[in-house]
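Appendix B, record 7
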Amino acid sequence: MFASFLIGLREGLEATLVVSILVAFLVKSDRRDKLPLVWAGVGLAVALSVGFGALLSFTAANLTFEQQELFEALTSIAATVFVTWMIFWMRGAARTIAGDLRAKLGRALNVGGVAVAVMAFLAVVREGLETSLLFYASAQGAAATALPLIGISLGVLTSIVIGWGIYASAVRINLTTFFTWTGLLLILVAGGILKYGVHDLQEAGILPGLNTLAFDISAVLDPGAWYSALLAGMFNITPAPSVLEMAAWALYVIPVLFLFLRPAAAPKAAEPVS
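Structure tokens (predicted):
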């Protein structure tokens, strides 16, 4: 549930910030007549994202066991790629996203009303599709299917409240700090999703070593305890993982954390003109 909440909060806040910037630009430019077009683009993006999530669930429900394991493995790997790209993209674009969106919306206004709706749609649909894919991947293996849905719904609602507060200048938060901490947590979540994907590939018979365990701490970490469910749901920490699962987790988490936490390179000084 917490992993789904974090995904909904992070992705939802990015989408909410995008919409807030677009709306604020139109209001300050005295172009309120174009607001319905923005909301139309946003609504279409949300509908497409929900439909994409339903398609993933429907596809998985109509496959054989081996096909379902392979499908879930591929979606887990794709979700890991998307969340990694999103984390690093947001790290570099957070400072310039407002100016870029205003410039694009200004050009769209010159083209026409349909361009405004398309621009709003494209700005939100990426976040929505990523949210659907990440939610589907993170919810695999959940003991109670309702909890991930509740978690992501609460995360999205929280992001909307925060986004509205920022738009109304009632809330001041350090977005750089926010995206740094949520980025760190999402790297661990993505590592767990990748680990789950490797497990699915092993169950589908594509990768070997399903019964070759890295360790077995079932005597210490009770699989039926609440804290075991919390660790498994958040970071996919299981008491008896395979060697290949742990190798994939380590090969992803360690270098990605290093690159994410590495200080940005200082800009090069301009060379003197001869």
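Remarks on this record: The radius of gyration is 21 Å. The longest helix spans residues 65-93.
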